[in-house]
């Protein structure tokens, strides 16, 4: 319950803060427009001196290294799997067929249209 009171007070403070900000914005809109600013000339920028850089040192040539040849991969024998056993499945005994019971006929019940649920008659 105490946290609710703190959050309620905090939300009120935030609301009052934004009310003051919106009122300040409204007062700023009510002020007359400022006169247009005159563009003042920019001061002249003196040219920068040209800097000469020393030449870059030359990169020494790297010695050419030769790599030894890769060893050849040995050939492996082709793997073979043993033959799978041929299991024999036992014979399924025949079940004597039993006739299915007949479905009883449902007697016809007359239906009466409900006036407010039926569609309106077509002309």
UniProtKB/TrEMBL annotation:
Residues annotated as signal peptide: 1-24
Residue numbers spanned by region Disordered: 29-48, 53-95
Residue ranges, compositional bias (Pro residues): 53-90
Alphabetically ordered keywords of this record: Signal
Domain of life: Eukaryota
Protein name: Uncharacterized protein
């Amino acid at each position: 319950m105490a946290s609710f009171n703190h959050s309620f007070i905090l939300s009120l403070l935030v609301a009052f803060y934004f009310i003051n900000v919106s009122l300040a914005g409204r007062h700023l809109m009510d002020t007359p427009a400022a006169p247009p600013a005159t563009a003042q000339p920019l001061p002249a920028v003196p040219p920068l001196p040209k800097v000469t850089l020393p030449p870059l040192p030359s990169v020494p040539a790297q010695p050419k290294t030769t790599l030894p040849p890769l060893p050849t991969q040995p050939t492996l024998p082709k793997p073979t799997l043993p033959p799978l056993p041929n299991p024999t499945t036992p014979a399924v005994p025949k079940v004597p067929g039993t006739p299915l019971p007949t479905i009883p006929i449902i007697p016809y019940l007359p239906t009466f249209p409900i006036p407010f649920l039926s569609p309106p008659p077509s002309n």
